[in-house]
């Protein structure tokens, strides 16, 4: 049985979360009312997973995540309100080592959380299965092999889920601007968070990255992050510019946005070189997309098990036989870049 520590400064929320998890078959071994107490209790009870509030007195969630990862690493799920401030803080907590996030419906003191019990239990179980130390502080290696003579109009498609934000950011931050990619990112993440994630990618990268809007067009040096709760499809491509459409059609693999939707539509529409990379995450999303990109003549990469917080998505893609290379997180930018260099 999965053993959880519930951390929240609200007694009401600690009770609600604990009841949901216990009903879902998770053993809540203890609770804590702030980050400082959480750090001590993690060391005492050694839980399989921690649910962590963001804003708390004495020591907030970000500080607690950093202390736990330094002293006694365990998988941590951030429980965040759907606010800009909490979204920024949650992304920072994930940078410090938290594995994933779950959005509290209805705000910090959420009376609506019970209506999302199954999703919360599933998220806690997924995070409990993660390697909390994998994929953090990724330092990409780069290659100058073959110089900077790249093919024209390449497109890069990146798909990730649990544990993915840090790896996605590290790849884009080190991607050479002269490669002139058109970038599409699908990161499984709650709505209201994807705009803040796109902003972080834009700030850390030489590429112009935005959250996707319906009908958005991008050319070389630009990228889009799929909006939370919307599929992102490539609807058109001409003269090195691609266009996307957003829709709320049926979830695929129980997720929206789905990696497969974006990759399959790109394979169908984009006629210039394509590169696809599937990263850490739970589930099977991305496998069909990788197959489609490979069948269309593109290059395909998967993150390896050792550096993946959760190996589900890469493993399912590898099993298709359509992945060109399986690589540690820190070598992905190098491989992606080398794949579009002109042959000499």
From TrEMBL:
PTMs per UniProt: Phosphorylated by CheA. Phosphorylation of the N-terminal regulatory domain activates the methylesterase activity.
Catalytic activity: L-glutaminyl-[protein] + H2O = L-glutamyl-[protein] + NH4(+); [protein]-L-glutamate 5-O-methyl ester + H2O = L-glutamyl-[protein] + methanol + H(+)
Role according to the record: Involved in chemotaxis. Part of a chemotaxis signal transduction system that modulates chemotaxis in response to various stimuli. Catalyzes the demethylation of specific methylglutamate residues introduced into the chemoreceptors (methyl-accepting chemotaxis proteins or MCP) by CheR. Also mediates the irreversible deamidation of specific glutamine residues to glutamic acid.
Gene Ontology CC terms, in alphabetical order: cytoplasm
PANTHER family xrefs: PROTEIN-GLUTAMATE METHYLESTERASE/PROTEIN-GLUTAMINE GLUTAMINASE, PROTEIN-GLUTAMATE METHYLESTERASE_PROTEIN-GLUTAMINE GLUTAMINASE
Domain CheB-type methylesterase: 149-343
SUPFAM superfamilies (UniProt xref): CheY-like, Methylesterase CheB, C-terminal domain
InterPro entries (UniProt xref): CheB-like, CheB_C, CheY-like_superfamily, Sig_transdc_resp-reg_Me-estase, Sig_transdc_resp-reg_receiver
PROSITE patterns: CHEB (PS50122), RESPONSE_REGULATORY (PS50110)
UniProt domain comment: Contains a C-terminal catalytic domain, and an N-terminal region which modulates catalytic activity.
Keyword terms: Chemotaxis, Cytoplasm, Hydrolase, Phosphoprotein
Its EC number(s): 3.1.1.61, 3.5.1.44
Cytoplasm among keywords: yes
Family stated for the protein in its record: Belongs to the CheB family.
Lineage: Archaea, Methanobacteriati, Methanobacteriota, Stenosarchaea group, Halobacteria
Subcellular location: Cytoplasm
Protein name, per record: Protein-glutamate methylesterase/protein-glutamine glutaminase
Domain Response regulatory: 3-119
4-aspartylphosphate: residues bearing it: 53
Example GO biological process: phosphorelay signal transduction system
GO terms of molecular function: protein-glutamate methylesterase activity; protein-glutamine glutaminase activity
Source organism superkingdom: Archaea
Active site, renumbered: 161, 188, 285
């Amino acid at each position: 049985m999965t053993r959880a520590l519930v951390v929240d400064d609200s007694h009401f929320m600690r009770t609600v979360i604990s009841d949901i998890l216990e009903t879902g078959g998770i053993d809540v071994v203890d609770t804590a009312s702030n980050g400082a107490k959480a750090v001590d209790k993690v060391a005492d009870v050694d839980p399989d997973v921690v649910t962590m509030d963001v804003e708390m007195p004495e020591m907030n969630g970000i500080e607690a995540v950093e202390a736990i990862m330094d002293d006694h690493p365990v998988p941590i799920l951030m429980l965040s309100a759907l606010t800009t401030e909490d979204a920024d803080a949650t992304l920072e907590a994930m940078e410090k080592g938290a594995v994933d996030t779950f959005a509290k419906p209805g705000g910090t003191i959420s009376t609506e959380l019970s209506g999302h019990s199954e999703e919360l239990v599933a998220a806690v179980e997924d995070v409990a299965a993660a390697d909390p130390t994998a994929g953090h502080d990724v330092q990409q290696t780069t290659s100058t092999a073959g110089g900077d003579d790249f093919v024209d109009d390449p497109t890069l498609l990146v798909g990730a889920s649990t544990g993915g934000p840090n790896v996605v950011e590290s790849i884009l931050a080190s991607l050479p601007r002269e490669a002139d990619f058109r970038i599409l990112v699908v990161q499984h993440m709650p709505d209201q968070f994807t705009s803040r994630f796109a902003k972080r990618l834009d700030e850390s990268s030489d590429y112009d990255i935005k959250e996707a809007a319906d009908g958005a067009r991008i050319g070389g040096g630009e990228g889009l992050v799929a909006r939370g709760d919307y599929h992102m499809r490539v609807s058109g491509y001409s003269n090195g510019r691609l266009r996307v459409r957003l829709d709320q059609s049926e979830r695929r693999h129980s997720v929206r946005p789905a990696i497969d939707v974006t990759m399959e539509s790109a394979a169908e529409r984009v006629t210039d070189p394509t590169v696809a990379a599937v990263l850490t995450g739970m589930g099977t999303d991305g496998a069909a997309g990788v197959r489609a990109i490979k069948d269309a003549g593109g290059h395909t990469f998967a993150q390896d098990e050792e550096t993946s917080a959760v190996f589900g998505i890469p493993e399912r893609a590898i099993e298709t036989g359509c992945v060109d290379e399986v690589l540690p997180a820190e070598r992905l930018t190098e491989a992606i870049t080398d794949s579009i260099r002109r042959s000499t």
